[in-house]
Design brief:
Elements lengths: L5 H14 L5 E4 L4 H10 L4 E9 L20 E8 L4
Parallel strand pairs: 1-2
Antiparallel strand pairs: 2-3
Helix pairs in contact: 1-2
């Protein structure tokens, strides 16, 4: 797969675009190089969005008094879906 670099994102998206025969909906994580790589590989021929997870302190009865190990990520408090469009 490669590293999480702009160059590898471009190679990955070009490879993906070459394998698809019709318009698709694609969502990725918030890795910024995907913004350029998707545009480069698909142009306007794709419905693209990034799903960005927002982490924060856990709330509610299920987490009252519970503690997580220091190395554990904070619980997800909700997704942020950003649809990217050209002006």
């Amino acid at each position: 797969m490669g590293e999480r670099t702009t160059e590898d994102a471009i190679v990955f998206m070009r490879d993906l675009a070459g394998r698809l025969t019709s318009r698709v909906q694609l969502s990725t994580d918030g890795h910024k190089p995907y913004l350029y790589a998707v545009e480069d590989a698909f142009g306007s021929g794709i419905d693209y969005a990034q799903l960005i997870k927002i982490y924060g302190a856990a709330t509610g009865p299920a987490t009252s008094g519970a503690t997580a190990p220091p190395s554990a990520p904070a619980p997800r408090s909700g997704p942020l879906l950003a649809t990217l469009t050209k002006p």
